[in-house]
């Protein structure tokens, strides 16, 4: 009997050992891939002004944001998340070598949460990331993310592709779901496959705690190619919210559809146009807080705003292909106002 028990223990230990070594055999060492790409990853620090409630009423405060990005061109083009830079008054970029430079936004898609910024200078030690093909990603495939979670620069987290999420709303969007650890500061950072190819840009997480819970979402590089790289969206430097129906009626917008301006970046084309930001924060049940009292854009060039896929496509094509100065029609204080931009 004792011999039988010992034999069973030996068998269990052998099986456990076999399982252990099998799992270990499947784990991928990405240290070489990390070494090859870390020179392309940047930390992005921004400065912007936001209106907030205080005991003195509504005040404007200077806020600093932190995100990540990745260099995709030796001339200084960096991909990042739109929510990091879209209305920034000032952008500073730091490479892993410690070298710093300033940057400006040149293209942004706030719906897909991706943006392209241009660096003022590129360090000689900088590495250009190799753009991969996110269509080849398979659920279960291993990937890794590099960024600055909570300001801890150039941190690596490894995970798997958990799913692909396609949304066909005002624009067609695709996000790669991953269980790789993503936290505040990772936004805008790159996701690589194990060959070190760029396959996505970190967008957001879904979390009840505010930290990583294994539900990260990354804008696919193929979507970014279509929206930002192949046909760049013009950046105007304004945070806007599409409105229609009851909200449009509540704001007394005659057109019943439009883009409610929330914030305007200092020195941006929007500020140069004279676009006015919202001034009064309000809470709407079941929705995020918004600012009212600013302009409502009701027409861009010859195209009235229609909160639909075709409507947004018309505006996007106009902004990307126009040869004349930008023209916006806004609803401001109960009147139609036309704003004209400078010559191209």
From TrEMBL:
InterPro entries associated with the record: Chloro_Bact_Ser_Proteases, PDZ_sf, Peptidase_S1_PA, Peptidase_S1C
Annotated keywords: Hydrolase, Protease, Signal
The UniProt record lists the keyword Zinc: no
Signal sequence extent: 1-27
PANTHER family, per the entry: PEPTIDASE S12, PROTEASE DO-LIKE 8, CHLOROPLASTIC
Protein's name in the database: Uncharacterized protein
Lineage, highest ranks first: Bacteria, Pseudomonadati, Pseudomonadota, Gammaproteobacteria, Oceanospirillales
């Amino acid at each position: 009997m004792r011999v039988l028990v010992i034999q069973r223990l030996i068998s269990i230990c052998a099986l456990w050992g076999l399982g252990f070594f099998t799992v270990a055999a499947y784990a991928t060492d990405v240290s070489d891939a990390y070494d090859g790409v870390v020179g392309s990853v940047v930390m992005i620090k921004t400065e912007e002004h936001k209106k907030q409630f205080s005991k003195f009423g509504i005040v404007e405060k200077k806020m600093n944001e932190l995100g990540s990005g990745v260099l995709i061109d030796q001339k200084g083009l960096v991909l990042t998340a739109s929510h990091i830079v879209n209305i920034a008054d000032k952008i500073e970029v730091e490479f892993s070598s410690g070298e710093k430079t300033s940057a400006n936004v040149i293209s942004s898609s706030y719906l897909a949460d991706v943006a392209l910024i241009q660096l003022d200078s590129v360090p000689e030690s900088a590495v250009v990331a190799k753009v991969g093909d996110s269509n080849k990603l398979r659920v279960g495939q291993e990937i890794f993310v590099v960024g600055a979670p909570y300001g801890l620069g150039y941190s690596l987290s490894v995970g798997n592709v958990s799913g692909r999420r396609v949304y066909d709303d005002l624009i067609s969007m695709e996000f790669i779901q991953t269980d790789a650890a993503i936290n505040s500061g990772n936004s805008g950072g790159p996701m690589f496959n194990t060959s070190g190819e760029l396959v996505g840009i970190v967008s957001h997480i879904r979390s009840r705690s505010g930290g990583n819970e294994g539900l990260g979402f990354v804008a696919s590089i193929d979507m970014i190619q279509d929206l930002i790289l192949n046909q760049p969206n013009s950046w105007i430097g304004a945070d806007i919210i599409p409105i229609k129906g009851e909200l449009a009626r509540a704001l007394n917008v005659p057109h019943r559809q439009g883009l409610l301006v929330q914030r305007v970046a200092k020195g941006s084309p929007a500020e140069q146009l004279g676009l006015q930001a919202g001034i009064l924060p309000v809470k709407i049940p079941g929705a995020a807080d918004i600012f009212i009292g600013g302009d409502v854009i009701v027409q861009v060039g010859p195209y009235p705003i229609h909160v639909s896929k075709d409507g947004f496509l018309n505006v996007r094509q106009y902004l990307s292909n126009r040869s004349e100065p930008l023209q916006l029609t806004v609803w401001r204080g109960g009147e139609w106002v036309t704003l004209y931009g400078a010559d191209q």
